[in-house]
């Protein structure tokens, strides 16, 4: 995926879609929450660069 899309390996976040499961699995929940945190950090970094492009060139 990283080669085909040109995305760094650290930006690929595998997640499990378990909307039909009836029981909660805390280990899966922790992995999903970590994935969400990583996505939010990436989005924050993108918007920081988007709104402050001059700071990146310094």
Task: Characterize the structure shown.
The structure is a single chain. The protein is mostly helical and 58 residues long. The chain has three helices and no strands. The model has no long low-confidence stretch (mean pLDDT 79). Helix content is 60%, strand content 0%. It is elongated, with a radius of gyration of 16 Å. The protein has one domain (14-57).
Tally of contiguous helical segments: 3
Number of strands: 0
| Strand content bin | under 5%
Q: What would you report as the Rg, rounded to the nearest angstrom?
A: 16 Å
What is shown here, in short?
The protein has 58 residues and is mainly alpha-helical. The protein has helices at residues 2-5, 26-51, 53-57.
Highlighted features:
60% helix, 58 residues, mainly alpha, 3 helices
Q: What is the fold's blueprint, element by element?
A:
Elements lengths: L1 H4 L20 H26 L1 H5 L1
């Amino acid at each position: 995926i990283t080669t085909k899309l040109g995305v760094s390996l650290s930006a690929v976040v595998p997640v499990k879609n378990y909307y039909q499961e009836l029981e909660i699995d805390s280990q899966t929940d922790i992995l999903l929450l970590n994935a969400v945190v990583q996505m939010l950090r990436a989005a924050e970094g993108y918007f920081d660069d988007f709104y402050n492009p001059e700071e990146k060139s310094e």
